[in-house]
Amino acid sequence: MKKFFLSVFFSALTAYFIGANAQNSYIVKTRGAKKQVKTEVKSDESEAGEKEEPADFITENFPYHSLCDWKEGMEFMVMPEKYDLIVNTFCNAATGKEVSSGRLRHKIMVYKNHNVAANGKTHINFYCKDDSLDYYYEISNGTFEDHCYGKSGVPTLAYLGDVDIARSKLIGMKLYTKGKVYRVDTQYEGDVYEEVSIPKNTEVTVRAVGVGTRNYPVKIIVEDKDGKEFYQNVAISKTNCGMRDDEFIMDKEQYLFKGSFEMVDANVSASAAYTQYIGNVVYTKYASTMYDEEDKVVNVPRLTSFTIAGVQSLSNSNYVILTLKGIEAQKTYTKKVTFVNENVAGDIDGYSEDYFMYIFGTGQSGIEKVPVAHRQMIRQGKVGVGYTKEEVRLAKGSPKRKISTGNGRFDWIYDNGVVVKFSSSGRVLKVHYR
To answer: Is 57 in a helix, a strand, or coil?
Structure first.
């Protein structure tokens, strides 16, 4: 696990104003965060990725609001990032003087309107609920219309509308984890956190929702079945998040709601169409890539046997995520497959390579009965002198032809020209390649 910190300069600046905001109800922490004033503050994350969200929840409940469509009364919280602690965002409307972003941190700004000032520049106007003062953000270049249709918005502001909706919709809800890395608070009154790895498809319950950052304004704290709490900051509607849609890719995709969480009601484990597979034993017909318990891509050999521990759907897709418990090594893996064969020209044997029935066979492979010394060769499709007929079948399948050669000896001939010669006792004498 790694800790992230700003420089001592930012730590000292933050310490000046952090105490006054410690009781803000939008600031939530995971269990175990220490209640003491820190001397260092972590940096805001370099965050989020985009995937299309489920229309039945995200789109209907978290509409995107362009700056052009902001309505009077919309609320935001000032969440300065590193750059904002040096370059001020707001001016006091009464004096026209810049105000430190640090001093405004965690204060709630209520949108009022916009106007063109005497200097010809556009002001976006706010009323601060915490100090009852008026502030404005001045657009340095261009008109309001030039500015509002983009994704830039107003710096430092995290949209609280998403937080409020998420509180009403998500607290108490069960979700499944979809991301790779989550966070645990280590300081109650600060922003220090530790990163923790959580297995995909872990069932969790939402315990609290608060404000995260400007880019990812909704902080969702969840708890697993063992009582462990962790969180993720996510962008949901992307209102004023300051990031374009095409920036929500690669390692940032985990900072969208769907990149970190899946709704339980989308999980196929409750569906009769898939519960029939849970508990079944299968084996890999071919070497296959899967994700291990640390969410790393690994190559699983052919003839590896598993019990299907879970099946989870992917929204708006024929694909599911299998959770597979290894029978030999007792390791857990996940694999994305489809139970619908979407045959495409060029696929092997007329099957899609991620088709369940192409990848897996039913029952145990039988390799667990084979001497350990023979298993690696068999998984590579090879056999050696002394191997049994059962071991040859595991390695190469059933032969195209069987020929008796006299004295109880016989040959198995395969399509690829391989001839396996057996002794009268049924053991391999020689493997001949034509």
So the answer is: helix
Tell which residue, 235, 170, 175, 228, has the closest CA to residue 197. Answer: 228
Separation between Cα atoms, residue 285 and residue 247, nearest integer Å = 39
Residue 408 has a CB neighbour count (10 Å cut-off) of 11
Question: In which region does residue 173 sit, left (phi positive, over 0), alpha (psi from -120 to 50) or beta (all else)?
Answer: beta
How far is it, in rounded angstroms, from Cα 64 to Cα 241? 10
The pLDDT, as a whole number, for residue 115 is 94
Question: 244 to each of 47, 150, 189, 212, how far by Cα in Å?
Answer: 12, 8, 31, 18
Q: Which residues sit opposite 401 in a β-bridge? A: 413
pLDDT of residue 271: 53
Asked whether the CA dihedral 392, 394, 400, 402 is positive or negative, the reply is positive
Q: How much is the pLDDT for 182?
A: 95
> Rounded distance, CA 295 to CA 304, Å?
19
pLDDT digit string (tens) for 237-263? 999 999 888 888 877 888 999 889 988
pLDDT at 19 over 90: no
Alpha-carbon torsion (249, 48, 166, 127), positive or negative: negative
Q: How far is CA 152 from the centre of its chain?
A: 25
- Residue 12's pLDDT band, with cuts at 50, 70 and 90, is very low
- Please state whether beta strands 261-263 and 174-177 pair in parallel, antiparallel, or not at all (unpaired): antiparallel
In single-letter form, the type of residue at position 423 comes to S
Q: What pLDDT shows up at residue 342?
A: 62
Residue 269 pLDDT class (50, 70, 90 cuts): very low
- The candidate with the shortest Cα–Cα distance to 131, out of 94, 169, 82, is 94
Main-chain dihedrals φ then ψ at residue 89, nearest 5 degrees = -100, -40
- pTM of this structure: 0.60
Model pLDDT, residue 343: 55
The Cα–Cα gap between 169 and 333 comes to: 32
CB 121 within 8 A of CB 140: yes
